[in-house]
Amino acid sequence: MHGGERFAGLGPWARQLGDAAEEAAGLRVTLPLLDMPVHLRWLERRLAAAGGTVERRTVTGFGQAAAEAPAVVNCTGLGARELVPDAGMRPVRGQLTVVENPGIDEWFTRADPASSTTTYFFPQPGGLVLGGTADVDDRRTEPDPRTAQEIVARCARVRPEIAGARIIGHRVGLRPARDGGVRVEAGPLPGGGRLVHNYGHGGAGVTVAWGCAREAARLVG
């Protein structure tokens, strides 16, 4: 069955897109979107309300954590490459460009099967987020001006008004990808106690976060 037909059968929130001049096939859907900086602040408030605290420390081994807690959950992302160690952890660099929204109230995404790019834009409070890239084993954390220009140009081919929008910021992040996929499993801590691994989510952190968290909590016991 065609993907559009399959999704359209789920309800009024999705239908096959047949009126796009430059697309052979597509879907028009209504879905919730997250503004990540706002979402992360909300999660931190939930943690504080539950009695948790956030501390910044340098950890070179699980023995340090084992000395303070009977159970440790390892959510170190790319840091797991050295800490576990797990040689399967690899950075996938992503770059976004944020522009003043020229009046766009719908989001768009299209993957390019011939490259590592996906063209997308998402309206959010305070701007329009444009993307994107997925560069494996690229650890640069500074914005690349040429990449920013290419992102704007690709998005403007879909919505021409984006070309003249004023750039108000750039975002660069390293997705914590893992050969073999997400790792959620338990093992022993040095000296006793329980170590639960929960890392390797790549670019799907929000999508799988709640399910992985529930499984990690179950493993902690």
From TrEMBL:
It is an enzyme of class 1 (oxidoreductase). Gene3D superfamilies: D-Amino Acid Oxidase, subunit A, domain 2. GO terms for biological process: D-amino acid catabolic process. InterPro entries: D-amino_acid_oxidase_CS, DAO, FAD-dep_OxRdtase. PROSITE patterns: DAO. Coiled coil: none annotated. It catalyses: a D-alpha-amino acid + O2 + H2O = a 2-oxocarboxylate + H2O2 + NH4(+). Keywords: FAD, Flavoprotein, Oxidoreductase. Residues 35-219 form the FAD dependent oxidoreductase domain. GO terms for cellular component: cytoplasm. SUPFAM superfamilies: FAD-linked reductases, C-terminal domain, Nucleotide-binding domain. Pfam families: DAO. Its cofactor is FAD. GO terms for molecular function: D-amino-acid oxidase activity; FAD binding. Its EC number is 1.4.3.3. Belongs to the DAMOX/DASOX family. This is D-amino-acid oxidase.
